[in-house]
Amino acid sequence: MSTTRLSDRLAGHQPLVLGLFRIVLGLLFTSEGAATLFGVLDREASPAGDWPFWYAGVIELVCGVLILLGVVTRSAAFLSSGAMAFAYFTEHQKDGVFPLQNGGLAPALFCWGFLLLVFFGPGALTLPGLLRPRSAPSAASPPAGGAEGTQVR
Question: Cα separation of 53 and 92, whole Å?
Fold first, then answer.
């Protein structure tokens, strides 16, 4: 199989894979926020108003749900990316240069993953996309497979 064909086949699945990436990232971020705010998942809850941890938990929970659902994804991802960059540089960088040294691997990965969503968008499987009514093809437009009488391979 040639690389061009493989690349074409993979490109066809890009929106779905990007959507799955967004869903997993949003779910993980939501769980971080829930753990910080409500003390679930073997973590102690941060006291309300405790700077910066409680506020980070609010951002994680709210933006995580928005990203998970694919609603205002770019804006929520931009805010989340900035929050994770802030967390990395204020809480982790002082303990070492590299994320493995300073315990900042999760914030670094979240930051770059969200930045990817800012530029590439939500992909497939978004709540607005699932709720949008499907429009019937108009008489002027050709059927989905191509012009009438042609076969798309």
Answer: 13
Amino acid at position 74, single letter: R
Give the pLDDT of residue 134.
81
DSSP 28-70: HHHHHHHHHHH--SS-PPPPTT-TTHHHHHHHHHHHHHHHHHT
CA atoms within 13 A on the CB side of 149: 0
The DSSP result for 95-128, as a single string, is G-SSHHHHT-HHHHHHHHHHHHHHHH---S--HH
Going by C-alpha positions, the residue among 108, 150, 127 that lies closest to residue 68 is 127
Provide the token pair at 100.
Answer: 């493995």
pLDDT per position as a tens digit, 17-51: 999 999 999 999 999 999 999 999 999 999 999 99
- The answer to whether the beta carbons of residues 58 and 38 sit under 8 Å apart is no
- Other beta carbons within 10 Å of 49: 8
